[in-house]
Structures are given as C-alpha cells and as structure tokens.
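Reviewers asked in the last cycle whether our approach scales beyond single polypeptides. To address this, we selected a multi-component target totalling 272 residues and predicted its structure end to end. The input consisted of the following lines:
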Amino acid sequence: MRTIKSLASLVIFLLILGTAYLFSGLYPIGADVPHNGFTHWLLETLRERSIERASEDIVLPGDLDRPNRLLAGGADYNDMCAGCHLKPGRDESDFSIGLYPKPPNLTQEAHDEREEAAREYFWVIKHGIKASGMPAWGPTHDDERIWSMVAFLLKLPELTPAQYQILTARTKNTTHQH
Amino acid sequence: MKRHQIPFLLGIPATLLSALALAHDPSLHKKGEAPDCAAMKGMDQAEMDMNDPVMQAMMQQCMKDLHHGQETEKSSVQPRENAEQDPRKQSDQR
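The resulting structure, written as structure tokens, was:
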C-alpha cells in the first residue's frame, strides 16, 4: 500500500513538473535548435510507427512502372517537392537547410522493400505529417496523381541529373493519361 | 442572421475551394524549361534498354526532338552525299 502511495505521489509530482515546464516557455522551439535526444527519439518513433501502421493495408496499383506515370509524377515532383527533397546533383537547398526536422533527401533513399516504400510514400504524400512542414496533398490531388508521384519517387535514386531534367520537364506528355 | 446573407456566406468558401482546385490542375502549372534532349542524341542506341520505363519515358519526352534532329541531320548529310556523286555540284557548293 505504501509503495502504491509513493508511486502515485511520484506520478503526480512528475505531472506537475511537466505541466510547469510546458507553461514556462523554456523549451527551445526554434527550428535552428535540434530537439534533445529523448524528444527526438520520441517523435521519430511516433512518426515511423504511425506511418507504418496507417499504410500497411494500402493496395498498390499494378502499373507503377508505366512511363506516363513517371512523366506525370516527375513534373509534379519537380514543381512541388524538389525544393525540400532535392534533385539529382543537388545536395541542399534553403528549405533542406532551414527546415526542422530536416526533409529527407529522396534522391538518396534506398528502397529495400519497394512495396512498403511505395505504400508509405503514398500515405505521407496524401496525408502529410504534422509539425514537419510536409503538407497533405490529398485534399487537392487525386489518388492517381499521387500514385504517379510515388512511381517517380521509386525511380528517383537511380536518375542522373540529365535524366531527371528530361523526365521532369512539363510538356503535353506530362498531362494525365490514366 | 438575415436570409439574404446566406448565399454570400456560402459563396465565399465555394469560390475559395474552386480556386484551390483550379490551382492544382496540372495544365495550369507553369511551363518550365523544355526537356534537354541533347544528352539522348549522343547515346548509343544499342546500349539503351528499351524495356526500362525510365528510358521509355525519356524517349516519349524526346521523340519529337530526336526525329527532328534525325531529319535535320539527313538534310545536312544529303547534299554532301550528292556532291560526292557529282563533282560539279561539289564545286558549285564551294
């Protein structure tokens, strides 16, 4: 009984301490100061697990390798994503330097599990990620258009700067022909 | 709230929503730079993997440019070939 009381007191004390810290404004919220190790681990784990769970039942379309998908997705990637997630031959941008958490360099992402990567890319593009700078494109872009971006992302790490330039140039070929 | 205000109040979000949809129409994205197909012209066609979707997509983008390039090449090569056959023409060209 005594142990339970001590434990309850400790929990209440920690809650009060946490609340006091929360309202004190002492936590450095600026994007130029990284999270401490614990907060970083906590948020990273929360994000990874949430995306993994939410995307596990997504069914992939069978035509992700279609050239038209690469052209449509490439043009959209160049317009909407390359500023943060970079392009072949470019290691950083103002956004990739200034944003926190740092947006992943998608030209260097290895895809050990292609299908899993495709599902997670689709979910993240469609729903975005809270407090990360990643918007939800779902409200303004239909699933077909998002799948084309996924198709392009799967090929992106293999592309040279010249291939990237050709694939992402917006011509009449890049309009949707699904 | 007065009844006549309702259409206006509904109209504002409707206008904003339609503007949002228009802004994301792919055809309204600004036309950027044209595909730089010069890199493809130097490629050895025997080494190209035509089953590779990346290569297929690049061919699709550059088809017009490559054909145009071939035609230009032909037209610039043709007179020289003719000139070789007919030495008089060769001297005329000079």
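Residues 53-85 of chain B form the longest helix (33 residues). We regard this as preliminary and will revisit it once experimental data from Aim 1 are available.
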